[in-house]
Structure prediction request, 283 residues.
Amino acid sequence: MKHNWIITVALVVLFFVAQVSGLFIVDKYLIKNDEKPEWKSLPSIMGVDVERPDVAPSVSMWYMVLAIILGTVLILFIVSLKRVFIWKLWFLMSVVLCLQIALAAFLGDILALVLAILFGLWKVFVPNFFVHNLSELFIYGGLAVIFVPMLTPVYAIILLLLLTLYDMYAVWKSKHMIAMAKFQTKAGIFAGFMLPYVEKGKGKKRPRVRTAVLGGGDIGFPLIFSGTVLASMGLYSALVIAFFSTFSLFLLLLFSKKDRFYPAMPFLTAGCLVGFAVVNLIW
Prediction:
């Protein structure tokens, strides 16, 4: 097991809560009808309207792939410069955007923006693991609200498969994903869940502080897929997929070994696909 039982269970619970809360946020933006699903507009940011690209799902999928590639290149550039402050500013803008969208599902736009800015500043410049992980529970719901309307379950599956191949290459071959994770963890600003804990030393070895992490992509992309299922098949179907993706994460953490890095997307994608198959068999 990669981490102890307490940390393993905590990561799994955080992941599941993020999936469920994200689905409820997405559901708040969905205008239900018997035909093609319609979506509420995104809240404006500082008076600036945010619009989703009006393109076909087949095109949207490639836009997202391109955005991931460009984002990765930019992060690696920041890592090479060792400019933590640049990373913090970029991270802050992303957090505020996604948090405002998530909170606006339940609150007014202005209040949602104020809270998003406050939590974003607290999270980035006065970090602690409680505020960090609490905000992460809602960030990916806001992210999903942006991208779910641009996809269908079929194209979301294709996206998951492409991301699985990318994740395997980035962790096992190029290892740049490991470099990015170490940079973010060292900076104390990590996109994803982050749980520090003390591991007891064996024999004469001193106890050491370890950090269990789960990357933001590993949280966000399964949620985007289950969000497309929510839009086409309903909330209960999406919750089934959330359960299976959570169970696949548990298996990964259970059978992985300490001090080794594993790509999570192959396991999460498998869980999503099994859940999707079960949903289609039941409904």
About this structure: The longest strand covers residues 192-199.
